[in-house]
Design goal:
It contains seven helices and seven strands; from the N terminus they run αβαβααβαβββαβα. The protein has helices at residues 14-19, 35-47, 65-71, 74-77, 86-95, 136-140, 159-174, and strands spanning 23-30, 50-56, 80-83, 98-103, 110-111, 122-127, 144-147.
Length: 180
């Protein structure tokens, strides 16, 4: 096997990306403090053509050199919006017909492995602060909560890793003909 060169990967350019059909998924970052985590979410969201990223509260907005270290330019291709309050972002999403899931360990949360998605619907996932998780008022206003099953001694994953796992799962479940 030979490792492919970047010119052999046939990636779309930034203009084509802006015009391309997107996965009907919005990632909401609720009070994320790390620029590296934010940049990583931008890069993963670009990779799977997520519709948009909502940056809320203390979550930094592009352009930051520290964010660029992990985003690698995805901060320039991804659509994003800033909201002072995460709850305002959730309210707007619900008014626009999105089903909003917080990714959090709560009573009655659903395992990601059991999640069934309707390919005719639009979704948003709320990712919480690295220490405090998703705010309780946001959980209370979500349509449900999803958690990733974990079997080791730790009870949480890094927010950018969690976002990548959840995006990948939504991509597999929603991707019927989005990219054909």
């Amino acid at each position: 096997m030979r490792k492919l060169k970047i010119t052999e990967l046939n990636r779309i350019n930034a203009k084509e990306f802006k015009e391309a059909k997107k996965l009907p998924l919005i990632v909401v970052l609720d009070e994320i403090r790390s620029l590296h985590n934010i940049g990583s979410v931008f890069r993963t969201s670009d990779a799977f053509r997520i519709e948009s990223i909502y940056l809320c509260g203390i979550t930094a907005t592009p352009l930051h050199s520290e964010m660029h270290k992990t985003a690698l330019g995805a901060e320039n291709t991804m659509d994003w919006k800033y909201f002072k309050k995460t709850l305002d972002a959730v309210d707007q999403l619900k008014k626009n017909g999105y089903i909003v899931y917080s990714i959090e360990q709560v009573e009655g949360s659903m395992s990601l492995t059991n999640l069934v998605l309707d390919k005719t619907k639009k979704y948003a996932i709320v990712m919480g602060n690295e220490v405090k998780g998703v705010q309780q008022e946001v959980i209370d206003n979500s349509d449900g909560c999803i958690e990733i099953p974990q079997y080791g001694t730790k009870h949480s994953l890094n927010v950018s890793v969690t976002t990548g796992i959840v995006i990948w799962d939504f991509f597999k479940k929603l991707n019927l003909s989005v990219f054909s």
